Amino acid sequence: MIKKTIYKSEEGRRKITQHYENYIKSLAFDVEQIYIDTSFGKTHMLVSGPVEGKPLFILQGGNCINPMTLSWFSPLIETYRIYAPDTIGHPGYSDENRISAKDNSFAQWITELMNYFNIEKCAFIGPSYGAGIILRLAVFMPNKIDCSILVSPAGIQLGSKLEMIKNILLPLILFNTTSSEIYLNKITNIMSANSMKEMDKQIIGDIFKYIKLEQEMPKLTEKKELINYNAPTLIIAGKKDIFFPESRLNKVAKEIISNLTAFKTFDMGHFPSEYYLIKINDEIKDFLNNNY
Hints:
Layout: H1 10-26, E1 32-38, E2 41-48, E3 55-58, H2 66-72, E4 81-85, H3 105-116, E5 122-127, H4 129-140, E6 145-151, H5 161-178, H6 181-192, H7 198-210, E7 233-238, H8 246-256, E8 260-266, H9 274-291
Helix pairs in contact: 1-7, 3-4, 5-6
């Protein structure tokens, strides 16, 4: 049987792997790398923080690399035992078969990872696609979540499709046709409100170039699905987020999540700047201190 791959070429796989390794070297803390067998495939995990710290799962953004997302939450490493899996079917070292973000597959996958570490329930952080995975867990295994932080979350409400086509999809087609930095800059500036680091921009460019992107967004969560989910939840959203703008998330989130402890808004894009990461981590620390 031919194994499915998300990479367009072996050269692409090597480049993304090199970015991954370079990002791990750039982290200001040590990480342990573990492989875990699950019923959905082999999963690669980054583990860090004090062994005696409370467990905290961090789920990466979609079409991204895990250490990049993990770096955003580095201020939490001192206090918590962090478990950060490479999402199956996304760039990284986990198996490349895609699993659905519309049914219970991701909830089952997370549960298997938690079981490996003998974690009954814990806190979760997920930016973007990672937040969509947490919401699937909230639907199917709500008892696994002590509390959750959803940053620029998928799975609640989408931004304007017209804006996404004009500002992301068309420049992406032109970038893939021409490899011109002009189009990459246009996309990354829109994604980050003109604040993306050069290193991240190059990685995003190579992901566009060498990866068959995951195009299926996590299912939009309905109120009736969260009937048994009552864990304290913090949402952090950006006014300039083209994918999941605060203006569209706010009302729906308050309707569907019964224990939405706080909804924080920043004047940021989908990709937070260093400045907003400081503010985000301060909010997260306060939330975890009070709810975990």
